[in-house]
Amino acid sequence: MILRSLRKQTLLASLFCLICSFGLSAKTYQLRLAETWPSKLPLLDDSVQRFAQMAEQMSGGRLQIKVDSANKHKAPLGIFDLVKSGQYDLGHSASYYYKGKVPNTLYFTTMPFGMTAMEQHAWYYYGGGQELMQEVYAPHGLLTFPGGNTGVQMGGWFREEITSVEDLQNLKMRIPGFAGELLAEVGATPVNIPPAELYMALERNTIDALEWVGPSMDLRMGFHKIAKFYYTGWHEPGSENMFLVNRAKFDTLPDDLQAILITAMRVTAFDMYVQATAMSTENWSQMREQFPDIQVRSFPPEVLVALKQANDALLAEHAANDPLAKRIIESQQQYLEKARAYTLISDYGYLETTKDL
Ligand code: CA
Questions:
Q1: Total structural domains in the chain?
Q2: Reported pTM
Q3: Long-range pairs of 206-210 with CB within 8 A, sequence gap ≥ 24
Q4: Is residue 119 located within the same domain as residue 45?
C-alpha cells in the first residue's frame, strides 16, 4: 500500500518535472543586436547574420536574435553606449572605435607592428588577452568577445610611390586611429573621411592616399581604378572585431543558452577570418587580372623604422600614464615576441623556403 502510494507520488513528481522542464525549455529569449555595419555589407554583416542564425538553430529556437544594422539605429559608432544602456542586449563593432570614450579599448582590435590574426587569437583565447579585455569593459557592465578578423590589412592605395620619409611630408592620407597618429608623427597629414565619400576624395585629389581593408573589401570600393600603388601592411596586421554583451541581460539567460551564445561568437570569429581569406583570394585574383597595372609595393625600411620608433614612443607614453594600459601593452609585447618566434620557424619558414619552387 505504502509502496503503491510512493510509486504514485514518484510518477506524479516525474510528470510534474517533465512539464516543468518542458515549460523551461520552451521559454524563448528575444535579444536585440546593434551592429556598426550597414545592412548587407559583405563579410561584416554576413558574419553577424550567420551568428544570429547559428544561435537560434543551436538553441532549438529558444534564442531569437534580431539584428539591427546602422541603417536602422543610426549610431554606427555608438554601439558601446547602446549595449551599455541596455537599449540593445548585444553589439558587433570594433573596440578601437571607442578609444575617445575609454582609452584602453584601443588595444583590442589590432596594433601597428603587432600580432597577426592567428597570433592574436592565441593571445585572446589562451594568452590572457580576453581577461584583459574583460577588465577594460567590466566597469561599463559589458562583456566582450572576439568577433572576427579581416586578416592583415593592406597599407593602402597611393597615387605616387613612397621611397623615403621625405615623400610622406604633408601627404594627405585617410588613415584613422592610432596608425594615423603615427603617420602624423613622421610628417604626413592623416584625415578621416566617411567611407561613402572616399572614392571621390581620391579621384578629386582631396587626398593623396588611403587605406581601407584589403582585397576582400577594397574591390567593391574601386580605388584601384584611380591609384595604382598598393602597399603591403604594417598598421593593422590582424583587425579583430568584437561582440559586446550587456552583462545584466546575459545573467538572466539559463546556463545552456549562455554557452550557446559564447560558442556561436567563437565560431563566428573564426569563420569571419576564413571568409575574409576566401574573399581576398577571389578579389585579388580578379583585380590582378583586370588591372595588370597595379603595382604592389612595401614601404622602404627607412619609413618603417621611423613609424616603428613613433609607435614605441607613443606606447611608452600610454604605459607611463595608466597602469592598466601598461599591463595590456606588456602582455601584448611579451606574447608577440613568443608567438613570432614560432611563426618565423613555421608559417614564415615554410613560405620563405618554398615561394620560388
Ligand atoms: Ca583599415
A1: 2
A2: 0.90
A3: 206/172, 207/172, 207/173, 207/174, 208/158, 208/159, 208/160, 208/171, 208/172, 208/173, 209/156, 209/157, 209/158, 209/159, 209/171, 209/172, 209/173, 209/174, 210/156, 210/157, 210/173, 210/174, 210/175
A4: yes
